[in-house]
Amino acid sequence: TAEGLAMAVAMVRPRGTIVVKHAAGADPAPVPIARIVEGEIQLLGSRGGSLDEAMAEIASGRVDVAPLVAR
Question: Is the pLDDT of residue 25 over 90?
Fold first, then answer.
């Protein structure tokens, strides 16, 4: 969603990476290009696999995303 992308851009550290999971039929989202360029942020698209299955794996604890998140 546009809100999710905005949140990710606000939270990512300089030179960090945001992975955007494709959702078929999703509405276009504005991209804050100045923040991305100035922060040298990588924006990576992913269209493979099921978003619902991925979220279920994360919610169940079978996939630990903590090592993927830097603070």
Answer: no
Cα 5 to Cα 3: distance, rounded to the nearest angstrom: 6
Helix (H, G, I), strand (E, B) or coil at 38: helix
44 CA to centre of own chain: 8
User: Cα 17 to the chain's mean position, in Å?
Assistant: 8
**Token pair 């269209």: residue:** 47
pTM of the model: 0.71
C-beta separation of 5 from 29 below 8 A? yes
User: In angstroms, what CA-CA distances link 25 with 1, 8, 14, 36?
Assistant: 11, 20, 30, 24
Indicate if the pLDDT at residue 71 is higher than 70. Answer: no
17, two tokens: 């990476």
State the Cα–Cα distance between residues 52 and 48, nearest whole angstrom: 12
